[in-house]
Amino acid sequence: MRGWFAAFARDDYAAGYALQAPGFYAYDNGKRFDATALGELLRAAKAQGAKVDWNLHDMDVHVACDQAWAAWVNTGASGKAGAMTPVTWLESAVLTYQDGRWRMAFLHSGRVAAPN
Description:
Number of strands: 7
Number of helices: 3
Helix content: 10-25%
Radius of gyration: 14 Å
């Protein structure tokens, strides 16, 4: 998981996509993103000056043979440089072990509501 986020943080989209299983999709921001669509959305946002910082912690990982699922808290920030807004996401993923490495088959990300 950390490798996938790190690849996108350093704008290495090919490395991020290589960590996705065939048929990968994600639920994020109330929408479904197939294959490379989430990465391309991030790429376009960064081209417009957006910045996203991620910090994955409180990992809960369960492995059974060539399948795994993980859940974690992701605290960070997003926005334009100099105007970053703190964000917390609750996230989970399903992974499959293929070709000697773990690959993400599914990702779910939901923002935690900001405190009132």
